[in-house]
Amino acid sequence: MSAWTLLNTLYVMTEGSYLRLDNDTVRIEVERETRLRVPLHHLGGIVTLGDDVMLSPALLSRCAESGVSVTLLSRSGRFRARVEGPVSGNVLLRRAQHDANSSPDRTLALSRNILAGKLRNSRTVLLRGAREAKADDDRSALDAAVAKFDASLRAVGVAQEMDALRGVEGEAARTYFAALNRLIRIDARADFAIDGRSRRPPRDAFNALLSFLYTLLVHDCRSALETVGLDPQIGFLHVLRPGRPALALDLVEEFRAIAADRMALTLINRGQLKASDFRTTEGGGVLMADDARRTVSIAWQERKKETLMHPLLESEVPLGLLPQIQARLLARTLRGEMEAYLPFIAR
């Protein structure tokens, strides 16, 4: 039974689930067999993932009366709708979000923690690669990159303005992408070598793959923010621009390396993607073939089912739910219920 209760929110992912009201309890049935019961007063929200997860009208009505939000996501995690009663605290949450964005001190503090999460997880990917490297020159290069990341993390902690913080991020990104080639299987490096990050359009196959995975990740993070009632457009680390989901991009940062980058490396190193899956346009951009996109999409959904230990919750949760959890932690921080935002750090 794929259902979790995390941070007072019930997540239901099992196909064919039917949620009904049983006195003051949410009862989850699959093929008319009761699989789980959760007292309604223990919940602040219900999130369903999949078009075939259904809720009874009585449960929806009771949730609206009790202030329990109900959010509907597609199987891939795309936000569909949120059902709430006439009185909602989301306007207060959004006001707190706007207030924090207007405060240079709070913007800097939130951005520091977001960036620290990104750097810590990127460092973990490089460190694991150094341990598994078969060639001495690869190991040495990766160890050197890890040492630079240690310096970047120290710089994040003392940065006193956003420009300085973004400068640290830029330098760390150059170090990271230069080292990423060392994690590619030796016989695949000629086809998937990456010379820094490029987009609009990507200039090599690895960047084309990363761009597609990052798009999937942004969608998941945006859905998570909309689920908790935050405005995806109002971010902290990323500059506000019309049409840009700045807060979703902020939330993406801590997951890039452990979710998208590791997935890209796995697909390449296992031979699931080959050079023939990409083509170069007349303008020099690189595009991924439709069949390859399907391969990546399927692998992405499977990856999201894998569980990781959440250090704050001290429990294993599916990777696909991590953006939801972190969005709720961010909302709690903005409300003042937590002293500081704690990004997800992979172990």
Automatic annotation (TrEMBL):
The keyword Manganese applies. It is an enzyme of class 3 (hydrolase). Its EC number is 3.1.-.-. The keyword Thylakoid does not apply. One of its GO terms (molecular function) is endonuclease activity. Its cofactor is Mg(2+); Mn(2+). Keywords: Antiviral defense, DNA-binding, Endonuclease, Hydrolase, Magnesium, Manganese, Metal-binding, Nuclease. It holds the Pfam family Cas_Cas1. Mn(2+) binds at E169, H238, E253. HAMAP family: Cas1 (MF_01470). CRISPR (clustered regularly interspaced short palindromic repeat), is an adaptive immune system that provides protection against mobile genetic elements (viruses, transposable elements and conjugative plasmids). CRISPR clusters contain spacers, sequences complementary to antecedent mobile elements, and target invading nucleic acids. CRISPR clusters are transcribed and processed into CRISPR RNA (crRNA). Acts as a dsDNA endonuclease. Involved in the integration of spacer DNA into the CRISPR cassette. Belongs to the CRISPR-associated endonuclease Cas1 family. NCBIfam families: cas1 (TIGR00287), cas1_DVULG (TIGR03640). Homodimer, forms a heterotetramer with a Cas2 homodimer. This is CRISPR-associated endonuclease Cas1. It comes from Dokdonella soli. The gene is cas1c.
